[in-house]
DNA sequence: TTTATTTCGTGTATTTGATACACTAAGCAA
DNA sequence: TTGCTTAGTGTATCAAATACACGAAATAAA
């Protein structure tokens, strides 16, 4: 939960990006505004209003490094979070809920994959987040029917088994809403 | 677009409610946090961060009255808004988008109806917001299949025609997410 | 070179949900 | 009694989601 104070002439998202960078060394992630928490008692020390953002990344792309403000950083699975300060557990719950819900109607899952990926990798993202196994044929049918990814023509050869086709997002610039 | 400054020990939603009341005399509405706007240039006079909320009501239940802060108040159809200050047009656009999208997967439409209502009234809410005509039989089938409203046993007699069954929401306390 | 192992990639039948579509019922007024 | 208005209902079709099993391609080991 990296965070900090907004500069007087700083944009909100820029601030979130800066604090993330300063405390973890991580840059270039997808950020989305989550919610603004302003209960007068949420921080007993003083009145704090938190405009919260969440970031998404591929986990293997990240090596958080404690720096300036933070003395220690680490990754935690959402099922085993440590004790959190203030209302930070509520914030994470809300982010998790938002993420799961957007998984169903948007292309947000691609923000957790590298530019080039296989359908099995994509399915794994969904399976981890939804915490259930999906049928491979139906998953592929569904994803491909939405026309949001395309084959690159390349194959991933990484093991003693059949290579997988490598795909990429057709329009990677933004999160698309897939209405159904 | 009623609004104003947060008191130092005031909750965000309480502030929105208070400002709405102070400027329009309107109370008791459904409020939902929309987004927080914080671009440093959005108000040229000074740095202002706006935690925005939208409210929903039945239109015939509201008589906005200008008071303390506001010199004038009036209703405007979203298709014919007057010139708006700062980024207020953007804010309204976002609220409209949120409303339309929630219409599809939640019970938000009921916040625009009185406690007791007929299916025709409900359908009218959807038709106005979606700006299209819906098939009566399919609409009713769909709504009733979701099991979110129930008959009261009463009928509305208000014209020289067959009376309509009066319905109410089964669980009016909250906006429910209807996953499909 | 053959076999075993692993992951990749594919098609069809069934079920479920969404859509298209038209007439009778009930009240009131003329 | 007739005319007008809005309420209420069923079925057939189409589209989408689900259930389900096996051959293909690569590598490693025998």
Q: How would you describe this structure to a colleague?
A:
The structure is a homodimer of 180-residue chains. Chain A is an alpha+beta fold and 180 residues long. Chain A has 2 domains: 1-105, Alpha-Beta Complex (Nucleoside Triphosphate Pyrophosphohydrolase); 109-180, Orthogonal Bundle (Arc Repressor Mutant, subunit A), CATH 1.10.10.10. Chain A has helices at 12-24, 88-105, 119-130, 136-145; strands spanning 30-37, 50-56, 116-117, 149-156, 164-169. The first copy, chain A, binds a DNA duplex (30 and 30 nucleotides) through helix 4.
Classification by helices and strands of chain A: alpha+beta
Report the span from N to C terminus of chain A: 34 Å
Number of domains of chain A: 2
List segments of chain A where confidence is low: pLDDT < 50 over at least 5 consecutive residues.
none
The string of secondary-structure elements of chain A, in order, is HEEHEHHEE
Oligomer state equals homodimer
CATH architecture of the largest domain in chain A: Alpha-Beta Complex
- Count all strands of chain A and give the number: 5
The helix count of chain A comes to 4
CATH class of the largest domain in chain A: Alpha Beta
Give the biggest sheet of chain A.
3 strands, antiparallel
């Amino acid at each position: 939960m990296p965070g900090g104070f907004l500069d007087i002439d700083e944009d909100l998202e820029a601030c979130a990006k800066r604090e993330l960078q300063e405390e973890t060394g991580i840059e270039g992630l997808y950020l989305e505004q989550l919610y603004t928490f302003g209960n007068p008692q949420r921080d007993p020390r003083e009145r704090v209003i938190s405009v919260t953002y969440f970031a998404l990344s591929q986990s293997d792309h990240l090596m958080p490094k404690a720096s300036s403000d933070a003395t220690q950083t680490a990754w935690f699975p959402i099922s085993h979070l440590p004790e959190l300060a203030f209302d930070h557990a509520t914030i994470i719950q809300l982010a998790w809920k938002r993420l799961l819900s957007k998984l169903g109607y948007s292309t947000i899952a691609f923000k957790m994959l590298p530019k080039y990926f296989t359908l099995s990798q994509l399915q794994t993202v969904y399976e981890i987040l939804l915490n259930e196994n999906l049928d491979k044929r139906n998953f592929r049918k569904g994803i491909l029917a939405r026309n949001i990814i395309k084959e690159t023509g390349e194959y991933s050869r990484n093991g003693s088994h059949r290579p997988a086709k490598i795909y990429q997002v057709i329009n990677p610039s933004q999160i698309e809403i897939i209405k159904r």
